């Protein structure tokens, strides 16, 4: 009688992750899928996941954030998407909406800057929509400057 007990892993090849599995783990981690769920989808143990996919687990969310930030930045700067520009100024720069009113009833400096930025953005978008064939004369430059100067002044 043989008293030797066989290990359940005898004869089993060690786990070897594929490039496709690495891509899946990186993507799922970036989407915020829990490690337990990722392991289940790959039909492996969670310990195997953390042992063989450490880099993908550690960098998946970072790579996803980079891609979203790149897309937002492109939309705000190259595509002149005003919604993306407003989101960027509010979230990344700490600006508030143009309807911010100080306790003393005057418009805040920040609100005036937002208004000026909106005017400039609208003018840039208008210029891009219709190619300019004539160089603006001095009257046009003065009129544009006067619009900004005529904006409500903050109370001191």
In short:
With 156 residues, the protein is an all-alpha fold. It is 61% helix and 0% strand. The radius of gyration is 29 Å and the shape is rod-shaped.
Describe it.
The protein has 2 domains: 19-71, no CATH class; 80-131 and 150-156, no CATH class. The termini are far apart. The protein contains 7 helices and no strands. With 156 residues, it is an all-alpha fold. Helix 1 (19-31) packs across helix 4.
What is the makeup of the main sheet? none
Helix content: 55-70%
Gap between N and C termini: 98 Å
Beta content comes to under 5%
* Tally of strands: 0
| Gyration radius from CA atoms, angstroms | 29 Å
The number of distinct structural domains comes to 2
Number of helices: 7
Order of helices and strands: HHHHHHH
How would you sum up the global shape?
A: rod-shaped
Mean pLDDT over the residues? 78
Q: Detail the poorly predicted runs.
A: none
Content-based structural category: mainly alpha
Layout: helices, strands, pairs:
Layout: H1 19-31, H2 35-42, H3 46-52, H4 54-77, H5 82-91, H6 109-129, H7 138-149
Helix pairs in contact: 1-4, 2-3, 4-5
Question: Which characteristics define this entry?
Answer:
rod-shaped, 2 domains, 156 residues, 7 helices
């Amino acid at each position: 009688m043989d008293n030797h007990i066989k290990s359940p892993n005898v004869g089993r090849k060690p786990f070897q992750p594929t490039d496709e599995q690495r891509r899946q783990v990186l993507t799922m981690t970036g989407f915020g899928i829990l490690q337990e769920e990722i392991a289940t989808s790959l039909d492996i143990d969670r310990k195997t996941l953390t042992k063989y996919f450490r880099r993908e687990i550690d960098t998946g969310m970072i790579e996803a954030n980079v891609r979203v930030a790149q897309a937002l930045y492109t939309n705000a700067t190259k595509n002149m998407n005003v919604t993306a520009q407003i989101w960027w100024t509010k979230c990344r720069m700490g600006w508030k909406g143009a309807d911010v009113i100080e306790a003393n009833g005057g418009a805040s400096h920040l609100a005036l800057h937002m208004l000026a930025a909106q005017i400039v953005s609208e003018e840039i978008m208008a210029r891009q929509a219709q190619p300019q064939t004539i160089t603006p004369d001095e009257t046009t430059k003065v009129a544009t400057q006067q619009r900004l100067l005529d904006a409500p002044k903050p109370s001191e």
